[in-house]
Specification:
Helices cover 38% and strands 14% of the residues. The chain has 375 residues and is an alpha+beta fold. It binds iron/sulfur cluster.
Length: 375
């Protein structure tokens, strides 16, 4: 098999039997019992592919079945409001996926009479569907010869073919796409082939502990032969993530706390959360400006949460308040942005709202420690 230092020689990579080996291995040793494998329904396959973006299978399983119980068909999802959809995504992270999912369902309902198109190019034009997700839906639901190249598959190809360079760079990625397309099976078997690549990346050629002894590609794998498995793929050059600091206000009146719905765009868009304040803002004055009278104030332990581009360090403050709150939203810290809706909720009921994961954890702890909840 040819060796490579760069994907620019991709067309010479295709070696006999790559697809055959992946297909045979998938049929014999791959995963067969995942809930989205038992169907060719494009709606269910699309939902699984979107949920699995940046999320492990184990974390997705419960969300997937709850979501389908509530929205068993694309038409039911398209007919729902975003507010009805978000609670079924809360905790799964990357919330733009849920907003795009909902927008995509509406577009398919309106422009394709509720049926996903089979053409990968048309799929890719829909909200929230990138090239790899389009390839996966086309291959798994419609049997189309389309390539996938998610993070797991990039890792497998980079090791098997000894591809150097940063796989997130457009020039390198373009060549790897060509390679992925050149490797597709010529005849039958696009479904098990696509699933096989996914399974290999998730269960055998894992990032930290690849099991080369169980790999059908081991005899030709450049990384294994040259003892460079730990080195490939080359890590992405990441800039250090900055830290953003802000306050989170837990406004309390008797057993209730105040929650606000966040603007659709931006971090945690469309979810419910606690009012936020710039770290330097005057807490007492801000609360008075909202028509409330603060009667007691207590700092709570700091929480940190990592986003892809920054780390959020939040300083929660519990404030007992009296009075009637003025609607219009506490300053979100961004000029001109205020949370559009708010609601007093009994502390024991707050987790019924679609909350970001760190806020849900903060409120669960707070509820337990204040004696309002059992667990
Ligand atoms: S032989 Fe090892 S490194 Fe190469 S593809 Fe298989 S599991 Fe990955």
């Amino acid at each position: 098999m040819p060796r490579s230092r760069s994907p620019s020689v991709a067309p010479t990579f295709a070696f006999g039997g790559f697809a055959d080996r992946v297909i045979r291995w998938q049929l014999r040793s791959g995963r067969h019992s995942l809930p989205w494998q038992a169907t060719q329904d494009a709606y269910r396959i699309w939902l699984s592919e979107v949920m699995l973006q940046q999320t492990q299978v184990a974390a997705v399983l419960g969300y997937y079945s709850r979501f389908l119980e509530r929205f068993p068909t694309l038409s039911e999802l398209a007919a729902a409001t975003l507010d009805e959809v978000m609670p079924y995504w809360a905790g799964l992270g990357y919330y733009s996926r849920a907003r795009n999912l909902w927008a995509c369902a509406r577009e398919v309902q309106t422009h394709y009479r509720g049926q996903f198109p089979a053409d990968p190019a048309l799929l890719e034009a829909l909200p929230g569907i990138g090239r790899s997700t389009a390839g996966a839906i086309a291959a798994l639901a419609f049997g189309r010869r389309a390539a996938i190249l998610d993070g797991n598959v990039r890792r497998v190809l980079s090791r098997v073919f000894g591809i150097e360079g940063d796989l997130t760079q457009a020039t390198v990625l373009r060549e790897v796409w060509l390679l992925a397309e050149g490797l597709l099976p010529r005849g039958q078997g696009i479904g098990p082939y696509t699933q096989g690549l996914m399974d290999l990346g998730a269960t055998v050629c894992t990032r930290a502990r690849p099991r080369c002894e169980a790999c059908p590609l081991a005899s030709d794998c450049v990384a294994r032969i040259e003892n460079r498995v730990k080195e490939l793929p080359h890590p992405r050059r990441r800039a250090a993530r900055p830290t953003r600091e802000q306050r989170l206000l837990i406004l309390r009146q008797a057993s209730s706390i105040w929650l606000e719905r966040r603007p659709e765009r931006g971090i945690w868009g469309g979810l419910w959360s606690l009012p936020e304040l710039e770290i330097s803002a005057d807490v007492i004055q801000t609360i008075r400006d909202r028509g409330l009278n603060p009667t007691a104030l207590q700092d709570l332990p700091v929480i940190e949460h990592g986003f892809s581009h920054f780390v959020l360090r939040a300083y929660p403050v519990e404030v007992q308040v009296e009075g009637e709150i003025k609607l219009g939203g506490v300053d979100s810290g961004r000029p001109g942005q205020t949370a559009p809706q708010g609601q007093w909720l009994d502390l024991a009921d707050v987790t019924s709202k679609a909350l970001p994961k760190p806020v849900a954890e903060l409120l669960r702890t707070f509820c337990r420690e204040s004696g309002a909840c059992d667990s």
